[in-house]
Amino acid sequence: MALGELALEKKAENVLVMDLRKLGAVTDFFVVCNGGVAQHVKAITDHITETMAQQGVRVFHQEGYANLRWVLLDFLDVVVHVFQPAWRNYYRLEDLWGDARIRVLDGAYLKRKIQREKKTPTRKPKITRATSKGTKVSDARGKRGRKS
Question: What dotted CATH number matches 2-119?
């Protein structure tokens, strides 16, 4: 869901993840979303491509960036479609691929994910230091003990 989450980070609207694996499509997933105006579509598209590039994943193919009505980002296994609302209503990819399993992502989804990540405690690794009198071990709580 990472690409859908990236779209949500830029306030994309009506974000859907369509699972096409059982339909014999040329890709595994579509992420479909829309931005309100051309500048919003650009912001969503730029955020996705820049963040993925930072992770070492480049866009295989991109279309529609010049007019920003419908931008397609092809990452091979996942294809992202970022629309302006009128164009999304016209093409209706959700209806075209109606047999796909669809998951709706929204702002509440992203908030729940962030809350789960905050609740998950991170444990500090045990630190072992060798000394002349033995080995000192500091555990996650900061208590020290001696090991021989």
Answer: 3.30.460.10
